[in-house]
């Protein structure tokens, strides 16, 4: 008897995972921890799997089911945009000034893009 095995060439896409808020998880855990309550019924009523509620309950008991940390502000570099002074005839116009901490870089005239990219890469490390 011959058997032909056909390799699977395409996989079906998995659906997106649902992301539940920490508040929602804590609410279900608190409901599920009450005496005489069915975890399966709580889970079914809220559209989640009972195993997931048990998992959240373990995290809660271990102190790992906490509210999401507040979003931290990213460090931004202050930028001041000002009109450059009028250059005398014949001189290149424009200037770039970059200040980061104690480092100050000023480029006047026409800046070579490749050189400027190298300098910025090293200064911003």
Describe the structure.
It comes from Duganella qianjiadongensis. InterPro entries: Homeodomain-like_sf, Transposase_8. This is Transposase. Pfam families: HTH_Tnp_1. The structure is a single chain. Helix content is 33%, strand content 10%. The chain has helices spanning 22-32, 39-45, 50-61, 113-123, and strands at residues 95-100, 103-108. The protein has a two-stranded antiparallel sheet with strand order 1-2. The longest helix is centred in the middle third of the chain and has 12 residues, at 50-61. It has 4 helices and 2 strands. The model has no long low-confidence stretch (mean pLDDT 77). Helix 2 crosses helix 3 (50-61). The protein folds into 2 domains: 22-61; 77-125, no CATH class. The chain is of the alpha+beta class. Strand 1 and strand 2 form a beta hairpin.
How would you concisely characterize the structure shown here?
The protein is of the alpha+beta class and 125 residues long. It has helices spanning 22-32, 39-45, 50-61, 113-123; strands spanning 95-100, 103-108. The chain has a two-stranded antiparallel ribbon.
């Amino acid at each position: 008897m011959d058997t032909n095995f056909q390799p699977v060439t395409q996989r079906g896409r998995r659906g997106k995972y649902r992301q539940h808020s920490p508040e929602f998880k804590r609410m279900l855990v608190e409901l599920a921890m009450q005496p005489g309550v069915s975890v399966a019924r709580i889970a079914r009523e809220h559209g989640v799997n009972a195993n997931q509620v048990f998992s959240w309950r373990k995290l809660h008991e271990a102190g790992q089911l906490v509210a999401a940390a507040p979003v931290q502000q990213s460090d931004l570099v202050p930028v001041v945009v000002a009109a450059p002074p009028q250059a005398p005839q014949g001189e290149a116009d424009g200037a770039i000034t970059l200040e980061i901490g104690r480092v100050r870089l000023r480029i006047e005239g026409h800046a070579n893009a490749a050189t400027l990219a190298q300098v910025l890469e090293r200064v911003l490390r």
